[in-house]
Amino acid sequence: MGAKADFEVNFTTKFIVKPTNPMVDHPHILSLSNLDLLSGRFPVSYFYFYPNKPHDLHAATDFSSIIESLSTSLASTLDSYYPFAGRIVPNQHTNEPEIMCDNSGVLVVEAHANIPLKELNFYDLDQSLQSNKLASISPDFPFQIQVTFYTCGGVSITFTFDHALGDATSFGKFLLSWSEIARKKPVSCVPDHRRNLHLRARCPPSYHSSLDQSFVKCTMEEIMNIPTAKTLIKRLYYIEDSSIKHLQSLASRNGKKRTKIEAVSAYVWKTMVTAIDTKSHGMCKMGWLVDGRSRMHKKENQINPMSNYIGNVLSLAFGEASVGDLKQGSISDVASIVGEAISKVTNEEHFLDLIDWIECHRPGLMLSKVVLGQGGPALVLSSGRKFPVAELDFGFGSPVLGTVCSTIERIGVAYMNQRSSAKGDGSWTVSSILWPELAAALESDSIFQPITTTHLQL
Length: 458
Hints:
Blueprint: E1 9-17, E2 28-31, E3 43-50, H1 63-80, E4 87-90, E5 97-101, E6 106-113, H2 125-129, E7 143-149, E8 155-162, H3 168-182, H4 195-198, H5 211-214, E9 215-218, H6 220-224, E10 233-239, H7 241-251, H8 260-272, E11 283-291, E12 314-322, H9 323-328, H10 331-343, H11 348-361, E13 365-368, E14 378-384, E15 401-405, E16 414-420, E17 428-434, H12 436-443, E18 449-450
Parallel strand pairs: 6-7, 11-14, 14-16
Antiparallel strand pairs: 1-6, 2-5, 3-8, 3-15, 4-5, 7-8, 9-13, 10-17, 10-18, 11-12, 16-17
Helix pairs in contact: 1-3, 7-8, 8-10
Family: Belongs to the plant acyltransferase family.
GO molecular function: acyltransferase activity, transferring groups other than amino-acyl groups
Protein name: Anthranilate N-benzoyltransferase protein 1
């Protein structure tokens, strides 16, 4: 057998897709909410991979027809999600970012790879993402798409959003709506873009003093130049359903059932302390992104008014423990620390305090001190269990993989993002940004398996 060809991508076409019949005809400014200012303005890229299915009578294998179908359905979707077709500009008085809803459009890039999909290195994301091969990003567009065709007839689609547009819940609703429109199905979400209706600061604003220890006002320059003491590598893992259930069983003791996220977090946290310099660091942190939609404006027996809200409604929960306690404690012991840390922010009062804290520190951007690299060794885990994966069928079949990875080069923490696998069998894929020692420690066990084409059934 000959050596595999180096992965190369040829960019062939760029064009702009605008809304067909935008709900808002005249340009207007959409001011960001306080929680939007906590987003960090990081670009977020979602990667979906679709194999060629020649046996499927409904599969579109013609590249031009795929591009045409995606463009037409995207234009229709942007009618309702019109901020995604706008521009992000600085406010002339405060310099804070805001969305100019002027229907400028979304950038779509068509590309052709020189290998079949099964030869792509899914595990080593650094290799697949190098030189912007799968995510070519233009700073002029807050939302852009790359459609890459492979020699086997397979397709990958990369969706890159500026975090100021929204969070994972927002982007998931948009992508699902788009796929529904592409398949001429009823749309399941009527988006709510009223950013300052739901997330206003109280008058007068007030907050718990602990927020001063957790968050800090910062500039875009500070975000772009986050100090990184360690080299970080990007990897994609597969976790079998049986491994997740086993960890959940170990974590659930004394009549307390732990969630799967709590159980896997406990395992990761215990593994993490074996991969840090314990002479320099006696304490170790772990964090979790928490969506506040279900915690805000909660009323008994009523539909959550924020269920279709488009924007950022995220906070960060952090737990801290000594290296000794994490090493010596059981999975159950550490899961208890995890559960307690998360519970501190899964309530409306925390989010109201956070909104007020930001109000008191405006104008400007805000970020967690730990994410800015100010808190010692730490790892943040984000759960995407509700994010659409197998459901994202644009008319040419379901994907074999849907995952996320940031294309940014500098971040102050290690990071993991969990997704349900496209198999729908309870297994997970975990996109990770880790220091090499932690990657090696995780891979020494059978739980975090470097993802392969066998896992993806390619």
